[in-house]
Amino acid sequence: MSSWALDYETANCTIGAALAIVGEKWTFLVLREAFNGIRRFDDMRRRTGAPRQILSDRLARLVAEGLLRRAPYREDGQRTRYEYRLTEKGIDLFPVMVALLGWGDKHARPADGPAVLLTHRDCGAPVTLRLGCADGHQIESARQVTPVPGPGARRVA
Amino acid sequence: MSSWALDYETANCTIGAALAIVGEKWTFLVLREAFNGIRRFDDMRRRTGAPRQILSDRLARLVAEGLLRRAPYREDGQRTRYEYRLTEKGIDLFPVMVALLGWGDKHARPADGPAVLLTHRDCGAPVTLRLGCADGHQIESARQVTPVPGPGARRVA
DNA sequence: GATGCTAGGTCTAGTTGACAGACTTAGCAA
DNA sequence: TTGCTAAGTCTGTCAACTAGACCTAGCATC
Description:
The structure is a homodimer. Chain A contains 6 helices and 6 strands. By secondary structure, chain A is of the alpha+beta class. Chain A has a single domain, classed as Orthogonal Bundle (Arc Repressor Mutant, subunit A). A two-stranded antiparallel sheet of chain A has the order 1-2. Chain A has a two-stranded antiparallel ribbon with strand order 4-5. The longest helix of chain A has 14 residues. The mean pLDDT of chain A is about 90.
């Protein structure tokens, strides 16, 4: 089998663009903690294990890219400091998180089961991720999906 | 707001385990091409842009982890060589791919639109990823999801 | 108005990983 | 036996990561 993909460029694939932002080492762990409600530098550091400098870099990058924003806070007897909160752009990564968690739970499961479960806030039932199509069909496997060149596709010269 | 997450360890979070396998630089691009039907070393190299040595490392790692398998093939006038095909474990990463593509298309879109579209093989309609809960409710936003400690959760000492 | 406290950094030196480009390998054909 | 080709490996260079020490800026207490 030869793939149609060979005839097209990869330069403008948005997966590459997405990975350029969130694909660096530690970045995704930082986002995981952000989704867990962690907002402060030292908490992030403890929970991700990232070296301070790296964490500093990654937070700055995520703020620059608009996935996190810095918000001031103040504890009694302390000066004003800043914490990091997810923006809508960051929150939009949630499905990626859920998908990765699902894969990890299935294929890299620790003996005693998942450490975290996602539940529907309103009813408590476990959250699931489903593939479907715009016509309402359920899709069970990647084999039922056909990638086709989109409007931004460019043929290889 | 203080997060419940602070009371629990992160060591056994499966997102971390998943990222340890697929979170290295280039690895995800290699998998993207695998989903595009690319199987051969040189095609991978051209399409991902990864240096030969890195690609070689990543492919070996993915084979060792069971996401790809080596399969022999033979072109006329050539000796037998090996190509790399997704295993079920690899194919199970498809939702992560779709989620990342969706995010990229929304937030890092090139001017002329997405380079690749995913369509349902049977009806041609675009593929979508939906969050829901086991009770059948549709979930629109990460804000409707509550993470809770699972069976594998361990309190911080 | 000097001192200590603390979260959130920065600085430095050493190690690991990525990179480009040249070189190697193994079987088939002529 | 020579050439051809896909799929690597080897080498030197350079960038990224890492651990650990150090710095910073307000607030409170003295």
